[in-house]
Amino acid sequence: MQQPYNEEITKNIRLNGCDVLMCNIPFNQSLIDTKYYTGYGLDVMGYDLMNVGFYDLQDRYPLLEKGDIADWQYFDETYKVQIIDSYKLFVKGINIQLYLVQFKESFLEE
Asked: Among 24, 63, 85, 99, which is least packed, fewest CB within 10 Å?
């Protein structure tokens, strides 16, 4: 996972209306595995990617699948993202639902 946002920023980020557990700073698609270039819906001419994680509890994360379009929100700013892949992880005794998303529009960083 790339460098994460700090806790102050992360608590203001939502994906499809759900509070995120962790979220990394957007990164260029050149940093991901080549497997994503075929069959995953990655737009090679598109924008940056991001990993977004949630506690793996039934009501704590949005139910999204590959190819779905979702709203990524930071305070009042909302951006469309596409779900590229999803994973279930077990990190330090906690079940995590992780989504790899690609922004569908330009994202202004800090």
From this structure: 63
Longest CA span, the chain: 38
Q: pTM for the whole thing?
A: 0.86
| Cα–Cα distance, 70 to 84 (Å, whole number) | 11
Q: How far is residue 109 from each of residues 26, 47, 51, 71, 87, measured CA to CA in Å?
A: 8, 12, 15, 17, 26
User: pLDDT digits over 34-58, tens only?
Assistant: 888 888 888 888 899 999 999 887 6
- 79 CB-near residues (< 8 Å, 6+ apart): 71, 72, 73, 103, 104, 105, 107
Whole-angstrom Cα distance, residue 75 to residue 58?
24
